[in-house]
Amino acid sequence: MRRSGHALDWETKPLPFKVYPDLEPLRLPTGLPVPALETFAAMRAAPIERPAPLGLDRLAAALFFSAGVMRVKAYPGGGQVHFRAAPSTGALYQTEVYVVAGAVEGLEAGVYHFGPGDFALRRLRAGDWRGTLARAAADEAIAAQPATLVLSAIYWRNTWKYQARGYRHLFWDSGSMLSQLLAVARALDLPARLVTGFVDAEVDALLGLDPTQEGALVLAPLGAPSTPAPPPATVTPLALTTVPLSPREVDYPLLREAYDDSTLPAPTDVATWRADGGGGQVLHSDISGLHAPSPRSIGETIARRGSTREFSGDPIGREPLMAALDHAGLPIPMDVPDGSVELYVNVHAVDGVQPGAYAYDRAGRALILLHAGDVRRTSAFLCLEQALGGTSSATVFFLSDLGRVLTRWGNRGYRLANLEAGLRGGRLYLAAYGQGFGATGLTFYDRAVVDFFSPRAAGRDAIFVTALGRSRPRSP
Asked: Is the entire prediction scored with pTM above 0.85?
């Protein structure tokens, strides 16, 4: 890290929004249904007994509380940062959201781009393209669900700061966003799930993406089955103008190669990949014995959420910590089984828990002590020598047995591991803010993390880090 010589070029900092100057905006309604279900209940993937119809108002709420602009901070000199609903590495917000709509009340069928800056949709294609998306994902159910949100990433918006390592961040950030989308959909009585297997080139073409600059990451079908889509149609190229993000860009071929080497070329390959890995949706989870409700609704939690910039070092309780870990570890409703990541926890200040390094037993919902003692200084070092990693009440490290994951899922398994880590980290955010304390995501020294938690972590790889604790009040 110290030898890299990389410095930020502020003249080329990318624009925070993707802008289609020639497309008319369709303003989304602002009188939104606020998701009022308490935070923990919204995070549990329990079946929805009476699904609500997916209308434009509910779609707008799902977009706002997962990808919308929640607040704007102005700096001296005229600079602004538009803080979004979900966290993003470096507040760079490279995740874009598209809507493939076919049976949404109040919205004509079409393929749309969501603009969080003006809270509007712009139609890229007219017509019902759900059947085409279903074919690309080898998932017939997509053709019957009212809409599917497609998350993509604009590479340069993240690599401007993080270079090729930004490949990991694409999935951390989209995972965090999806943790909120799934919870908000549950609170709005909308069935939702994730689809990670699809023909990348077909989805990119449907959205009109330039594959050298942006790529689709994950699909999120939304709503109860409704009017089926027509048969798949031929996708013709789009010639849409977008405003350049920067006066010049730096290409990082390694990131593009990692994306390309994990693509699936045809629907038959998608079906085989999913079946060979033992794919199957998790429709609900065992929520018996989970903790008491959080004091806040999911809507209030998201509105209050913001990455903690400074921890006080004060303790949190054992029960709030375990509630956060248990809800982060709940099954994820998606087209392949989860379980790609394991949680390790450095406890610094948790009432009723001895300071030290622990492994979290997801099945038993318990902490297993690896070694006791004050590990604050070590935690800070492991988190790229960032003080936040050690001043927290607890810092959670996500590790993965990539040898096993890649054997099972091929190169696309690396996507799955980082996506799952980002999603579980996003759940930790929600659990923390839902209970009145803070959280922040951090990066790390990969090998040092594994060495510290070994021998139990031997053969794993570090994937992500989330720190939890009391936020220090800021001065006015």
From this structure: yes
